[in-house]
Amino acid sequence: MADTSVSYKCPNCGAPLTFIPGHDKISCEYCGTELDVNAMEELFRAKNELAAKAREAQESKWNTKDAGEEWSSDEAAALKAFTCSSCGAEIVCDENTMATECVYCGNPTMIPKRFDGMLKPDYVIPFKKTKEDAVAALKKFYEGKKLLPDAFTANNRVEAIQPMYVPFWLFDSSVEAHASFRAKKIRRFETPNEIVREIHVYNCERGGLMNFQRIPADGSKKMDDTYMESIEPFNYSDLVPFSAAYLTGYLADKYDVDAETSVPRADSRMEQSALNVLASSVNGYDEVAEESHAIIKNEGKVTYAMVPVWILTTRYENKPYTFMMNGQTGKVVGSLPYDSKKAFTYPAVCALILIPIIYLIVSFLLV
Fold this sequence. Notes:
This protein is an alpha+beta fold. Helices cover 28% and strands 35% of the residues.
């Protein structure tokens, strides 16, 4: 979290500083660094400004009220919500789907009810990848995985495959980013009597204006955030105004994380990206550490979109393995089993190969 107050600390070691009456310099009793009063005031003037900006950043907000819109009565009538009696997951499909199975636990589900209380999305990214594409991509995902059990690859079958539209909140913002970095230049040299390590410490201030468009945060508790971030990015140039027609033949997950609840996640992603940009401009030093920062949102717009995801489930030794594929780009992520015997064998084989080679090299050098 950004500091909203300033304390006088040694710029070298971080210890507290105290002005000693009758002296024209301030000395750190821990590391011996000396600063004159003018230099100290100049150093902490920037820190005071940054602290003020940090307080301003705490007051900046996203406008989440405009994300999505209300369904019309005809659109609401055409949508049904299904609740899985086994795991409690809620999924949405078009009015023609009377029976399905839960994509999360495989339980057959047919409990139609009116679809109320959900905003209508602003945009949708239509599916580009087919069921055949998803199966082929999963097989390719297995390739080159040396530690996979042979039985998994030989007998693997896709037990369930579901195309699903996943709710996403997309955050746009113009931000003013400020950060203070502590940088060091380190020089090591030897004298006849000692080894000297000379350290120069610098205070580096960075700031700038940045624009962020469509920072994604999925709106479903049931979808693994790590998986969803791993199949990014989506190509937002394919966003089209939402129409329920795109749901025909597909499932759609009902959001259970609203835009306001997603704000901390969007803030974190935006803040980290902004700090990475500022940090990348601090060049020519041996060590760089960020000390404080302030990210002020000048504008904050949120839109609601549905994005395409294929969810595939396989089983090995009676344990399900779930994979997700970006339904637009084809990127696949998921967890795989591994053969513990192979995990032990491969390093051992490598060692047996390397030992004679190392022996020959050493023997050659000793001749």
